[in-house]
């Protein structure tokens, strides 16, 4: 059995717990750690978990809303933390006191009860990676913070039963926002963040009968609205808009069991 729970998604901090169960074996991976340690503990407690229940951390890239308290958690609680060499270098090569593990594109991480496969994405970071998680029967893609879907990204999202995917901005709201021109170009560029329309295009490219859960993530507080994201993504799948879940920056999502 594979399930996940987002603890918060957006520019104020990102973190998602992925849990796999196989017989008596249980494994939990925290994907990104972009909250303060007290806030992280509070949100884990709402999921009936503590930091001591985590088996590993995975940091997708070096931006602060994804790294957060990763070093403190890893060193204090002796939890291995995975990230790319590029991410580690961009962070200034801090001392993780033996807990650092280097992740590579397409080299799976075996967590026992499930496997997490990192894959490279186009984003304005040193060596960003996102994840496809599977227990062999269920497959979930977690893909936020990318400017567009390369062929490599689309290949890794094929056959997923659940997707948590970025729907960062509405192009019109971004264009009319108070952001300075350089920031509009950065957010809307090929190495920035996905617009609702771009995410809709990805869903059309990877849709299949087994895809039964989609969570819109990393919505901009200024340049998007949940209803706009739900409408665009739902239309791409011929689903009702309300069938698309939205990850909140403050409450995340409920536990979501990945279907088979």
Q: Can you tell me about this structure?
A:
The protein has about 260 residues and is α/β, with parallel strands linked by helices. It has one domain (about 1-255): Metallo-beta-lactamase, Chain A, CATH 3.60.15.10. Helix content is about 25%, strand content about 25%. It is built from nine helices and 14 strands. It has helices at about 35-45, 65, 70-75, 85-90, 150-155, 170-175, 180-190, 195-205, 225-235, and strands spanning about 1-10, 15-20, 25-30, 55-60, 80-85, 100-105, 110, 115-120, 130-135, 140-145, 160-165, 215, 245, 255. The strands form two sheets. Strands 6-5-4-3-2-1-14 form a seven-stranded mixed sheet. Strands 7-8-9-10-11-12-13 form a seven-stranded mixed sheet. A hairpin with a 2-residue loop joins strand 2 and strand 3 (about 25-30). Helix 8 runs parallel beside helix 9 (about 225-235).
Strand-helix topology:
Layout: E1 2-8, E2 15-22, E3 25-31, H1 37-46, E4 56-58, H2 64-67, H3 70-77, E5 81-84, H4 85-90, E6 100-103, E7 109-110, E8 115-120, E9 129-134, E10 139-143, H5 151-157, E11 162-166, H6 171-175, H7 181-188, H8 196-206, E12 213-217, H9 226-237, E13 245-246, E14 256-257
Parallel strand pairs: 3-4, 4-5, 5-6, 10-11, 11-12, 12-13
Antiparallel strand pairs: 1-2, 1-14, 2-3, 7-8, 8-9, 9-10
Helix pairs in contact: 8-9
